[in-house]
Design brief:
heterodimer, A: 417 residues, mainly alpha, B: 515 residues, alpha/beta, six-stranded mixed β-sheet, 24 strands
């Protein structure tokens, strides 16, 4: 994750609250750093929190947390929640909520299972069909929300029951298994190995180098452009330190993965989603309109934004991502089960809010959703490793959610006054 | 006669950057109906909020004496305990509670927290009788008309043992019949010894019910006039209301006026909830190329409603009318359609309807014409930034960078961002609704010269404003509206503040006689 994360952050720095002092107002270096951080507190706060949590559990578990096997596990365990969190973030930015994604993921997983196991449909066909089912389900909910005007809370609460019931009807209360090997690989597969034997997974190393190169190039380009537009820059020392941090993170992460089975396929999917949706939300007209609607719907409408269509599409997209998450989960379990996806919606919503979404809408980034999801994921994994029971795990996660949003509210109030 | 029931002495009230009231005096005799008049923004509502405790004691200067006692209300409850009750223009009733429940809301007949329905209903019935409303007290508010709701508000005031009733534009939302009934009721209450302050724009109403009139202008008391037996001269009130200083600098311009570019014909809009009410009634206006045309009117005249309805049917229910661009009828049923035809509407409420306050300057400016900085649906951020920088410089938007959140800018700078947004969309027709409301003098002058530039570029500009000097200083021609209808069209050279105000205060009843 690390490489895409860092490059994503850089990609979003130019717009998100540059230090607001007049250009060239000297001050100490420390003061400049404080200013730079204050402007990006939303962005960096959670990243720092994530790093601290990782560090805490790394020490607490005597290094088990970051063992290659566990890192791979962590990615595979949390992939479906992270996929959901991306879609959920977009829905929340648009000023809505989706409670149905867990049920929908289960429903789509069940449908795919029935297709593949009972009707011997080839798995790629089943996969595409499943994504289409997700799109249709999303369109169904989006229609009621955007065009009829029923609150999303109600529509998706209904959807939660609807799809859960549908799952049980499809599966007749039983698990359907097993899946073709190809399908299972969506969740548990790795990129193939090529080239001579080294101690590491060669393709993963290459990928790591590529990602690092792109990340550093992006950083340098971003800085050059910022300079061209006369924006205030991070002091050179800090910029170099940042580059070093990115390099270190990417290198460590790559070596970790490369010394086990290599690069998980699901991580490839996640990376593509993160970069793709990150770019979409930031650089497409559709993405801009989503922020505008969440920020001030009447104003957006009076500016010519087709708000109904944008909200509709946000739910269609959520449906497709819920379907994808359902596939990944089913593939991991190697079964379609009636109990799949329970509470997924809550995890995804929590991830979005921990990652900086605002309950009022209009605020948040796709990268934030991933960071929020990772905070939860590392907490889950780390607490399990040190033997904290699921009862206390829930209590702690609840408090973390409250603290993250509370910090944000407090911080905003301080800035506002 | 005894001393005044209410005396407000040297009231001053400031908001950040604005002095809303300065040294205002108001004196109401017992059993008197006292009218308060003034243009939009003259300070009427602020004065009433001071009186009713919305702005608590200590946030204003000056003294309030009620029945000879100095008062220091800390909230509305405190003023109500003294018998001062205000009824706002936007009624404060809960639609899904019954009439009786609304009358005693916050003032319930109850013992130990348990409501006595028997006492509630019998008392409600008595009160309804007093205000002449023949409805079952258990009827829901949502099921009765606005006129009757107004009576419920008065019954609610009576339940609080009102001694001084304040009515803010009580007939603004009512039809002629309901207005007449309401005014009769006010006179009846007066006979029962209840004093009344009525804020109104309708001079004929004032002439009918008021005993004296206090005129406010720019937060100052101009004069208090007693209405004699022979009635009051409307001229005198109008003269007092207008006459704001022409202290702003308006750009010198030699209008180069072409053919009619934009026309609205026979436009009629109904109220979004109350479909009986015509908010805009058969209005036709036109603007020529290079011309700046003003629309004058007081609160409730239907100016904003007209503009928003034309701009993508964004207000109320459209029932008829055409929009023509260069003589050809165009469709403006949705905002994108209107923008597509080269229309732009700068809203009067920039915070609620104009800006996304959580976003930065650059993203706000590009929003309505994102296509111009995009290719195949993808925004070119550098281009967007360049555009934003250009506007920041040309409009003199004072902000550290184009990435400053618009929510943190001053009113004047926010308004420049909204204007930039619409100028960037390169419209042929601009409708500017209160373009200088709530912004400082310097920014006003800058915005005036922007408007003049737009006209000089051959665009058709329609300016809606409550400030008559602004209209006189800026426009080539001015329409006046009152109660949803067009009441006049005056050339700049012929117009004075007095003549405009006369046309703006014409009410439906008297209009027919004049025409």
């Amino acid at each position: 994750m690390a490489q895409t994360q860092t490059s994503g952050i850089e990609a979003s720095t130019p717009t998100d609250g540059k230090p607001s002092g007049p250009t060239g107002s000297g001050g100490g270096v420390g003061q400049q750093l404080v200013q730079a951080l204050r402007g990006n507190i939303r962005q960096y706060g959670m990243l720092v929190a994530l790093a601290l949590i990782i560090l805490l559990f790394q020490i607490w578990t005597d290094g088990t947390l970051l063992k290659p096997l566990n890192v791979t596990n962590l990615i595979q365990q949390n992939s479906y929640i992270l996929i959901l969190a991306i879609g959920m973030m977009i829905v929340i930015i648009a000023g809505h909520i989706d409670l149905s994604v867990g049920s929908l993921a289960a429903f789509v997983g069940a449908a795919a299972a029935v297709m593949m196991v009972k009707h011997q449909v080839p798995w790629p066909v089943a996969l595409v069909a499943a994504l289409l089912i997700g799109a249709v389900a999303g369109a169904w909910q989006g229609f009621w929300i955007a065009y009829v005007g029923i609150p999303s809370f109600i529509v998706t609460l209904a959807g939660m029951l609807l799809f859960r019931g549908g799952t049980q009807i499809l599966l007749q209360g039983q698990s359907v298994a097993p899946f073709p090997r190809g399908f299972q690989k969506i969740s548990s597969g790795f990129m193939p190995e090529v080239g001579p034997y080294t101690d590491y997974h060669n393709l993963t190393l290459l990928l790591g180098i590529g990602v690092l190169a792109i990340a550093v190039l992006q950083e340098v380009r971003g800085r050059r452009q910022a300079a061209a537009f006369g924006l205030e820059l991070l002091p050179l020392g800090f910029f170099l330190a940042k580059l070093a941090a990115i390099t270190a993170a990417v290198t460590v992460f790559t070596l970790l993965l490369a010394s086990y089975h290599g690069f998980p396929i699901v991580l490839l999917i996640l990376g593509a989603l993160l970069v793709g949706f990150g770019y979409l939300m930031r650089n497409s007209i559709l993405g801009r309109h989503t922020y505008a609607i969440g920020g001030n719907e009447p104003a957006a409408r009076l500016s010519g934004v087709k708000s109904k269509r944008v909200v509709f599409l946000a739910f269609v997209n959520m449906g497709v991502l819920a379907a994808l998450a359902g596939m990944v989960f089913a593939a991991r379990l190697n079964a379609g089960t009636p109990q799949a996806g329970i509470n997924f919606e809550l995890e995804a919503i929590a991830a979005a809010f921990i990652g900086g979404a605002s309950a009022a809408g209009g605020v948040g980034t796709v990268l934030g959703a991933i960071i929020g999801g990772l905070v939860l994921g590392v907490l889950n994994n780390g607490m399990s490793l040190v033997g904290i029971g699921t009862d206390y795990q829930q209590v702690i996660k609840g408090l973390v959610l409250l603290a993250a949003v509370g910090f944000d509210v407090y911080n905003k109030r301080k800035v506002g006054s | 006669m005894a001393g005044p029931v209410l005396e407000m002495r040297s009231i001053s009230k400031s908001f950040p950057g604005v002095k809303a009231l300065s040294d205002v005096n108001l004196s109401v005799a017992p059993g008197e109906v006292h009218a308060v008049c003034g243009e939009n923004g003259a300070g009427k509502s602020t004065l009433m909020k001071v009186l009713s405790g919305v702005y608590p004691h200590g946030t204003y200067e000056g003294d309030i004496l009620f029945e000879g006692e100095p008062c220091a209300f800390k909230d509305i409850r405190a003023s109500e305990q003294h018998g001062i009750v205000i009824i706002h223009q936007e009624l404060a009733l809960v639609p899904y509670l019954s009439i009786a429940e609304n009358i005693f809301l916050g003032n319930e007949h109850a013992s130990r927290g348990i409501i006595s329905w028997h006492r509630t209903l019998t008392h409600a019935k008595k009160l309804l009788q007093r205000v002449g409303l023949h409805e079952n007290p258990q009827t829901r508010i949502a099921d009765i008309g606005v006129g009757k709701q107004q009576l419920v508000e008065i019954a609610k005031a009576l339940a609080k043992e009102v001694k001084l009733l304040i009515l803010d534009e009580p007939t603004a939302a009512l039809n002629d019949e309901d207005s007449r009934k309401l005014l009769d009721l006010i006179l009846e209450l007066k006979a029962q010894g209840i004093s009344c302050i009525i804020i109104s724009h309708k001079l004929n109403e004032i002439a009918r019910v008021a005993d004296s009139v206090t005129i406010l202008r720019d937060g100052r008391t101009i004069e208090t006039v007693a209405v004699g037996t022979e009635g009051i001269s409307e001229d005198r009130i109008i003269r007092g209301m207008v006459g704001r200083d022409l202290d702003h600098r308006y750009p010198e311009r030699t209008p180069d006026i072409g053919d009619v570019a934009f026309a609205i014909e026979d436009w009629t809009v109904l109220h979004p909830i109350d479909h009986q009410r015509k908010v805009v009634d058969d209005v036709s206006v036109h603007v020529r190329r290079g011309e700046i045309v003003g629309v004058a009117g007081l609160m409730g005249a239907g100016r904003t409603e007209l503009a928003m309805s034309v701009f993508g049917r964004s207000y109320g229910r459209y029932t008829g009318g055409r929009v023509l661009l260069n003589g050809v009828e165009i469709r403006t049923r949705t905002v994108p359609e209107a923008i597509g035809h080269g229309l732009a509407y700068v809203t009067e409420d920039r915070k609620q309807l104009g800006l996304n306050l959580t976003e930065d300057i650059s993203r706000n400016i590009s929003l309505s014409a994102l296509g111009k900085v995009s290719r195949h649906g993808w925004v070119n951020e550098h281009e967007e930034m360049r555009v934003a920088e250009k506007f920041r410089a040309s409009m003199n938007i004072k902000a550290p960078s184009v990435f400053a959140e618009t929510g943190k800018l001053s009113g004047g700078n926010q308004q420049k961002v909204v204007l930039s947004k619409w100028i960037f969309s390169e419209p042929d027709v601009l409708i500017l609704d209160e373009p200088t409301r709530g912004i400082d003098v310097g920014a006003k002058a800058e915005i005036y010269s922007v408007i003049a530039d737009l006209a000089a570029q051959g665009k058709a500009v329609l300016v809606i404003s409550s400030e008559l000097p602004e209209l006189l200083g800026l426009c080539d021609r001015i329409y006046t509206m009152a109660e949803g209808r067009l009441t006049g069209e005056v050339d700049r050279t012929d117009a004075t503040q007095e003549s405009l105000m006369r046309l703006m205060t014409v009410s439906a009843a008297t209009q027919n006689e004049q025409v």
